[in-house]
Amino acid sequence: MTFFTNDVTLLVITILFGIMAYKLARGRIETSVAIAGVKPHSLVHYYGVYAALWTLVPALILSLIWAFAADPLILNTAEARLRIAYPSLPASFLDLKMAQLQNVAAGFIDAPDDIMAIEAEKLRASMDRVDFARVLTLLSVMMIGFLFSFNRLKPQLKARVAYEGFLRRSFFAAAVLAILTTIGIISSLLFEAYRFFSEISMIDFFFGTHWSPMVSLREGVEGAEDEAVAGSSGSFGMVPVMLGTLLVAIIAMLVAVPIGLFSAIYTADFASSKVRNVIKPMLEVLAGIPTVVYGFFAALTAAPFFRDAGLLVGLDVSSQSALAAGGVMGIMIIPFISSLSDDVITAVPQSLRDGALGLGSTRAETMLRVVLPAAFPGLVGAFLLAISRAVGETMIVVMAAGVAANLTINPLEAVTTVTVQIVMLLTGDNEFDSVKTLSAFALGITLFIVTLCLNIAALHVSRKLGQRYE
Amino acid sequence: MCRANWGSDMNNRSDNTLSSMGVTNLYSATTDTRMAHIEAGLKKRRAASRRLRLYGVAAILTAIGFLCILLTTIISNGYTALQQTEIAVAIEVPANEILDDNGLIDKEKSRNYNWGGLVKRSFRKEFPEVTGMLDQRSLGELLSANAGYDLRIQIEKTGSVESGTNIYWVKASDDVDMLMKGRMDRTIDEKMRRIKDNQLVWFDKIVADGSIRLAFNSTFFTAADSREPESAGVLGAIVGSAMALIVTVMLALPLAVMAAVYLEYFAPPGRLTDFIEVNVNNLAAVPSIVFGLLGLAVFLGFFGMPRSAPLVGGMVLALMTLPTIIIATRASIRAVPTSIRDAALGLGASPMQTALDHVLPLAAPGILTGTIIGIAQALGETAPLIMIGMVAFIVDVPASFTDPATALPVQIFIWSDSAERAFYERSSLAIMALLLFLISMNLTAVLLRRKFEKKW
Description:
Distance between the termini of chain B: 49 Å
CATH topology of the largest domain in chain A: MetI-like fold
Structural class of chain B: mainly alpha
CATH architecture of the largest domain in chain A: Orthogonal Bundle
Number of helices of chain A: 16
Structural class of chain A: mainly alpha
CATH superfamily of the largest domain in chain B: MetI-like
Number of strands of chain A: 2
CATH topology of the largest domain in chain B: MetI-like fold
Largest interface: A-B, 95 and 88 residues
Low-confidence stretches of chain A: 1-5, 216-232
Strand content of chain B: under 5%
Order of helices and strands of chain A: HHHHHHEHEHHHHHHHHH
Mean pLDDT of chain B: 86
Strand order of the largest sheet of chain A: 1-2
Mean pLDDT of chain A: 85
Distance between the termini of chain A: 64 Å
CATH superfamily of the largest domain in chain A: MetI-like
Radius of gyration of chain A: 32 Å
Largest sheet of chain B: 3 strands, antiparallel
CATH architecture of the largest domain in chain B: Orthogonal Bundle
Oligomer: heterodimer
Strand order of the largest sheet of chain B: 2-1-3
């Protein structure tokens, strides 16, 4: 709590500092203008903002860096001291001791022994010192920034230009964040996947037909002394997982494409605008329902329904059948396909329709022989995007599809998907560095690349539509 | 086939004009049969047109039918969770064990007192015929495992202890709750049933006595998660979701507006700008679980941020919704007519002043609408939050942004995974709450758009 109030007071002080810098700078320019009688380059409030920015921004950047850098530094030194205090402790116990130490230092629990009490006291002291140093540094950085800018204030200073330059640079930084996110995704996935592939060969991973990361198959073969490998590795062949993903996605597309496409045809060219205005929002409601709700529906309503229906006709349908997961995923994708196809169909130039209708073809003939062929590239693009979404969809399959990887294309059996495996591998109580958790990142990068290719292909194909009629 | 018909159709017309001009029509005999042929074909073609229309209507009705089935299933399963079964138990609270010298409740004593034992003992007294350890235990199972705690809260709330034996309503166990609501089949074989035959007899006796009732399930809205369905609530998840979304808005909205203004007004045409645009558009289509992996590897792994915290959840969701808001903001900036921009620039405003003081205020309703829609998406998102550990079992309502917490959709996921039938009902009700939030957010977006939308 003291930590919190400390931060709040610091925040209030910072804001007060900013306001003061603004007022002082503005006042100074106003008086110097009044005395010297020169017209300032910018409006007076820009000088205030100029000084306030110089006061606040460096301090803000510094405090952000501090927040990320300081704690690990303190904890590292504390851990080094612990290692000296308990020389015989193995590494994993040291982590536990470290967590305990932090809790003791924060006052959550009492120290179990004297060494811990002393260490906790030291840790708390060093934390307090660093905290004090942080406040002091921040205040002085603000002071320096303010004095620096305040000294530069004169009516000839191009305060507005400086301010706008700062804004423009920060806008640029915000836009670059999109690139940074992509780089972050790719590099973090690649880094973990690289560590995975240094233990499991790529050929085994991409072409192996057996996936059971939880079962230890190598025990006895590798020998017990190689504990890390024998204890944590099963077999990692992703073919059955990928096949399951494809199976579910195909079932989803089989449901979604006809329904979505026919609704789009109807809303785009057959329905009156009044009907259209009712139908489109209703389909959008389907799109707005969270996937966890679909998953709930798939697992607890659709799957039992398919199983019972299968029993009636004498079929053995698994309670985690690909049919239930894929079918419900199809429902989820309907609005996606219908709205994208609707856009594509309406984008076909009216002149094509007018020409066909003018030559005496019926509405259906216009649609099937003129409009749809013209819209074909765009439709393919929409379908590719839908497949990409089906492949990356997580919650429905996590809740309704299976966990065990079966190498099958029978929709009545349970299959597993890439996303299910990622969730399963990363939610257990696994160590973060084990081969099991690393394999999730290998699956993740595969998933990312597959969806990326689908998205790019979709963009590429649908661009052709635009070019054709420009 | 059809194309041939159109061709002959045109021939006919030219033939007729020729004959009316007095030219001898050599083909007049065949024209009539052709006309008949076309007439016949026309019927077929019109039927085909009607069929296509019918397919369209059928497709839409199917989609809307799915929506209706989905909603009815959830509502019909969930509405009963608004009520909770309670059983009246005559209890004599031992004043000397709870009260301090002033006759007020001593919190310390109250906390240490065995309330659960008291409730069970009093309940057993109402069934003197039940003897034997096993029978007595299964009798006690009719009451909630947390009945003692509930009684303590009830009594501490009143502040004093009434003397003598009084009737207190305590929660029934989830199985009794299901039985009471008719969600348990009592005719199936005893081994398959969670309530055994002897328990059924006692249950019927309680019902006959009238000492059982369905009361409003306020716990659901005031508690966080629990192992016992009757003590579980969504408040913790709602607070967790709200905290995560606050972080999301505070990060995503300013960053998205800045990026959109840059891309629309300041980005020099070139490779870098193209690359940024490709990235924004592509990020909008990246599966959400990949953002979860990013959060796990970078925020938790690299920066060492706390697991399960709404702060990290909000950051991941912000990265995920950023492209959505950027795209919406750019669209609404573009919808502001260039005349506004030209006028501002013509009067001597700098490009930055034009963008911030003239264009952005006019684009604000569109930006707001886009943000609300992006946030609604983030509210329903589950997978990335699971990746960063917001899937843990947490019994406390989070008090700060770094406390372990869960989110509403994740809570639904956790509950629907549980074996108890009563959790099934509760996750349906939680879904209804989630949908209610989403509907109200989207409605706000629509209303905002209606109110502020300008036709230039």
